[in-house]
Amino acid sequence: MRRRSYADDVLARIDAFRSRLDVVQYGELQYDAEVYPLFAVRNRGQHDGLPLMLVTGGVHGYETSGIHGALQFIEAHLADYAGQADVLVAPCVSPWGYERIQRWNPDAIDPNRSFREDSPAGESAALMRLVAPLRDRVLMHIDLHETTDSDESEFRPARAARDGQPFVAGGIPDGFYLVDDSKRPQPAFQQAIIAAIAGVTHIAPADANGEIIGSPVVAPGVIQFPVQSLGLCAGATNARYRTTTEVYPDSPRATPEQCNAAQVAAVRAAIDFALKKSS
């Protein structure tokens, strides 16, 4: 059941950018009678020779601040990087999931495990086609996510049931954290983002086992996954600097506005760090 509107919440805001930024349609999804055009936004002007930064949001459509944080960044800050960086933002990769507040697409496929060649998820395949000619040009890729209470109460049990596995209860970290690439870690990059976020919202602590969501904490607020082998969006290009943000919107210590602001601060810190290192 549709619970919110992609057209009203996302497309209308993207349309407002057309007078000052480049808006490109990179695909279209059709589920039964519903059609979802997919758009990316880019700062206007000549980009030859400029470092390319990629920002993605809404890979999991139910993770609200990923979408609205990306849109807020475009509105307030994308034009700031004209002449410094070529910034490409895909703010809502999974519009069907956004409308229905769902992690998976209608085929019960998790788009954020599907960023690979011949992807079974239309959402992931469309983004892969967009970035294919840019894979080796991208210097930085930040993918905006949330970890919510519904991960534990709804989506993890559903995944276990789908896969015929027993559900093992875990926990949801209270605060912001990042997922680095375990195969190509960039600890200074991750810590620059954490430092920027600490002024906006709280950083998730390690649990009693020194872990966050079952992964060892390698630095304050940072864990690592092998992003490309897992088919995660952060591994969609060969970017030197890449990370996945995770915000906890159900925390009693954070508001929706803080979660959006944290995503914006993370994007700005990531771009600024990559620019400094490339100069």
UniProtKB/TrEMBL annotation:
<protein>
    <submittedName>
        <fullName>M14 family metallocarboxypeptidase</fullName>
    </submittedName>
</protein>
<dbReference type="InterPro" id="IPR055438">
    <property type="entry name" value="AstE_AspA_cat"/>
</dbReference>
<feature type="domain" description="Peptidase M14">
    <location>
        <begin position="2"/>
        <end position="279"/>
    </location>
</feature>
<dbReference type="InterPro" id="IPR000834">
    <property type="entry name" value="Peptidase_M14"/>
</dbReference>
<keyword id="KW-0479">Metal-binding</keyword>
<keyword id="KW-0378">Hydrolase</keyword>
<comment type="similarity">
    <text>Belongs to the peptidase M14 family.</text>
</comment>
<dbReference type="Pfam" id="PF24827">
    <property type="entry name" value="AstE_AspA_cat"/>
</dbReference>
<keyword id="KW-0862">Zinc</keyword>
